[in-house]
TrEMBL record:
This is Probable lipid II flippase MurJ. It comes from Asaia spathodeae. It is a multi-pass membrane protein. The gene is murJ. Keywords: Cell inner membrane, Cell membrane, Cell shape, Cell wall biogenesis/degradation, Membrane, Peptidoglycan synthesis, Transmembrane, Transmembrane helix, Transport. Pfam families: MurJ (PF03023).
Length: 519
């Protein structure tokens, strides 16, 4: 499981790095203002579907059913089931896409109530979203094909295909800015075109794996009804985090121009560790837990979940405390160029700190959710999801006026903590999640090591690089890199001092696993 988690996490990390380059170009060429706000609304809707289907509900509904058929009935039956699902999903998504294109002005009024007609942002958002909306048809279909690859334990291409989204996106931004002088429109075109590229790569990979999917006439067979019963509740249950972020965006349209952009870039930095660790853990953990459930191995499932929490915590807590310590320097270094001013970077850093407070909760939700899905339970997460979405909306309405652009991310953080608490308590009562004393002690020590790292890093930054936010160019980037490197060293030393891990033993373990995976 650790090797698969690292494989998926590695591809996701590459995708996030390229995504960071893409966002830097967006910030430099569009800045933080009405055009950027309109583009972010156009990007948010299909991207929400990508995260829900690609990283959440669809995997939860499809992968266990596909894996069960592949294991117990053979490849032919699994192929037939996957083809049926592909036919039904494609037909439904095509209908949604057509309706979305027709009724786009009303959709924008719903998700961006703060955009006034005639002010420019509303009309531009409608135009750009009509360009990007077909992406949801392509990427949700691609999610099914990726689920087939995950069920076949071919995690590399399923994770690697998403890298093409950012490669195509970078090319589109440069074309729009440097050749056609219309960055927003060409960036929107790049989103939809990347959907064709991702779907093509995944279909090619499935064929190489020896499984030939077809596109039959959609029929609601009993198998499809079973999958849909699992899918719809999971859209809210496993996607509560993404729906909460969408609520943040909706509320931020009521704030002054630029607020959507500040929230977006803060969320993108927060999504780097969240995507790498959360998506990797959720993707690789579900098939493993499903096998334990099928074998009746309850103890093995508990141990697997505890190990996943342990692995995630060792990387999650330092990311959380590191972002809290260096948020202004990180935002200024990554995005403080071109039309994105230092003031924009500082405002975005305030939002980032509010998001970072909830980073451990966001990731642990991804780790615990498969504990429900592996047992075929999608109803409980959906109930919890409804509660936390309602809580997030209420907190947003309470906080957005007094705290402005800090209110929405802080509301999401509080809602995520409540969500995590519900998941943990219910799984514990069901004897699925049983953290032992050793795990709890390790979590406390990891938190202490992360806090020590943050304090030392903050002191070193103030001593060695006062006013780093105002520095320029490569000097600022080099100094931030030095601070982050020192933070990593401090953290590793703290892990060793607190008896959590010996770096050399961990490295040797990973190298042994890598050599064992080679033919």
């Amino acid at each position: 499981m650790l090797r698969n988690l690292i494989t998926v996490g590695g591809w996701t990390m590459l995708s996030r790095i390229l995504g960071l380059v893409r966002d830097q170009l967006l910030a430099a060429f569009l800045g933080a203002g009405p055009v950027q706000d309109a583009y972010q609304i156009a990007f948010r809707l299909p991207n929400m579907f990508r995260r829900l289907f690609g990283e959440g509900a669809f995997n939860a509904a499809f992968v266990p059913l596909f894996t069960e058929r592949l294991t117990t009935r053979g490849e032919e039956d699994a192929t037939r089931f996957a083809s049926q699902a592909l036919g039904c999903l494609s037909a439904w998504l095509l209908g949604v896409t057509i309706l979305g294109e027709v009724f786009m002005p009303w959709i924008i009024e719903l998700i961006a109530p703060g955009f006034d007609h005639g002010g420019g942002r509303f009309e531009l958002a409608v135009h750009l979203t009509r360009i990007t909306f077909p992406y949801l048809l392509l990427i949700c279909t691609a999610a099914l094909v990726a689920g087939v690859l995950n069920g076949l334990h071919r995690f590399s291409m399923a994770a690697g295909a998403y890298v093409s989204f950012n490669i195509v996106g970078i090319a589109a931004i440069l074309l729009g800015a440097l050749v056609f002088n219309d960055t927003a429109t060409w960036t929107a075109i790049g989103i939809t075109f990347s959907g064709f590229v991702q779907l093509g790569l995944l279909l090619w990979s499935v064929r190489r794996a020896g499984m030939r999917l077809s596109l039959p006439r959609p029929r609601l067979t009993p198998e499809m009804r079973d999958m849909l019963r699992r899918l719809w509740p999971g859209l809210v249950g496993s996607g509560a985090t993404q729906l909460n972020l969408t609520v943040d965006t909706l509320i931020s349209t009521l704030l002054p121009a630029g607020s959507i952009s500040w929230l977006y870039f803060a969320d993108r930095v927060n999504q780097l560790p969240l995507g790498v660790l959360g998506a990797a853990a959720g993707t690789t953990l579900l098939p493993v837990l499903t096998r334990h459930v099928a074998a009746g191995d309850n103890k093995g499932g508990q141990q697997t979940l505890n190990r996943a929490i342990d692995y995630a915590a060792i990387l999650t807590f330092p990311a959380c405390f590191g972002l809290l310590a260096l948020a202004p320097e990180i935002m200024a270094t990554l995005f403080g160029y071109g039309k994105f001013t230092t003031e924009d970077a500082l405002s975005s850093a305030q939002s980032l700190r509010a998001y970072a407070l909830g980073l451990p909760a966001f990731i642990m939700i991804k780790v615990l959710s498969p504990g429900f899905f592996a047992h075929g339970d999608t109803r409980t997460p959906v109930k919890i999801g409804f509660i936390t979405i309602a809580l997030n909306l209420a907190l947003n309405l309470m906080l957005y006026r007094p705290l402005a652009h800090v209110g929405p991310p802080l509301a999401s953080t509080i809602a995520a903590l409540v969500n995590l608490g519900f998941l943990a308590v219910i799984l514990h009562r069901r004897d699925v999640f049983c953290p032992d004393r050793a795990l709890m002690q390790r979590l406390l020590r990891v938190m202490a090591a992360s806090l020590l790292m943050a304090v030392v890093t903050l002191a070193l930054t103030r001593f060695l690089a006062p006013g780093l936010v105002m520095w320029h160019g490569l000097i600022r980037a080099a100094m931030l890199g030095l601070m982050m490197g020192l933070a990593g060293i401090v953290y590793l030393v703290a892990l060793w001092a607190f008896g959590i891990s010996q770096p050399q033993r961990l490295l040797n373990r990973l190298l042994r696993r890598k050599r064992g995976a080679q033919p």
